[in-house]
Amino acid sequence: MRADDVQNEITKVLVTEEQIQRRLDEIAAQVDADYAGKDLLLVGVLKGAVMVMADFSRALKSRAPVDWMAVSSYGAGTKSSGVVQIRKDLDTDLHDKHVLIVEDIIDSGLTLSWLLENFASRGAASIEVFALLRKPDAAKVEVNCRYVGFDIPNDFVVGYGLDYAEGYRNLRDVAVLAPHVYS
Ligand code: PRP
User: Fold this and answer.
1) Which of 4, 62, 96, 159 has the most C-beta neighbours closer than 10 Å?
2) Cα–Cα dist 79/153, whole Å
3) By alpha-carbon position, which residue is closest to atom 10 of ligand 1?
């Protein structure tokens, strides 16, 4: 669905599907160049990163394998709890791999900083992060993110993988959720 289909539930479209696709092409070209000749592994963080991984991995020209990690730091609410749980671990041994973590959003940064620490002990040749969205004003910890799609304001956003109570992940655009939906 597109933002028009849920216009009463959102206050603003922040990033359109077309803007996302253009930015993914730019970042994919950068990643292709940066990882030329290297053994790149893309690691997606479920569930939010499904859309960005599907589009970003196909925008790459290299045949990068994809693995998934499922962690969760949010319940049905809108604020990070800071508690990270592993719900599904990787299937791949990271030893000597050049890992690029693909995330839909860095909000407080707690999930990624926990993941980076967790991955650091697994013997990867390198670990970098690509986040489609980043909220600089919400950061509680600094995360070294090599590739960023868009910096956005500290609003509750949904769409393109991002949910509210599991809804809106299938919205093609990224939009600000209207407060009446969650208050
Ligand atoms: C979201 C998002 C990131 C994390 C970012 O995941 O996909 O993984 O929150 O927030 P942080 O920077 O404050 O840690 P969530 O835990 O909501 O799970 P989901 O991907 O299944 O929606």
Assistant:
1) 159
2) 15
3) 107
Matching CATH number, 17-152, of 3.30.930.10, 3.60.40.10, 3.30.465.10, 3.40.50.2020 = 3.40.50.2020
Closest approach atom of ligand 1 to CA 70: 21
| Residue 145 scores a pLDDT above 60 | yes
Task: Kindly give the distance from the C-alpha atom of residue 37 to the centroid of ligand 1, in angstroms, as a whole number.
Answer: 31
DSSP class per residue in 48-100? TTHHHHHHHHHH-SS---EEEEEEE---SSSS--S--EEEE--SS--TT-EEE
Please name the helix (run of DSSP H) or strand (run of DSSP E) that holds residue 110, with its range, or none.
Answer: helix 110-120
- Residue 95 alpha carbon to ligand 1 centre in Å: 26
Task: Check if the beta carbon of residue 107 is closer than 8 Å to that of residue 113.
Answer: no
**Which residues surround ligand 1 with Cβ inside 6 Å?**
45-48, 72-74, 80, 103-111, 163
- The pLDDT of residue 85 is 85
Q: Residue 153: is its pLDDT beyond 70?
A: yes
Residues for the chain: how many in total?
Answer: 183
Kindly report the protein residue whose alpha carbon is nearest to atom 3 of ligand 1: 105
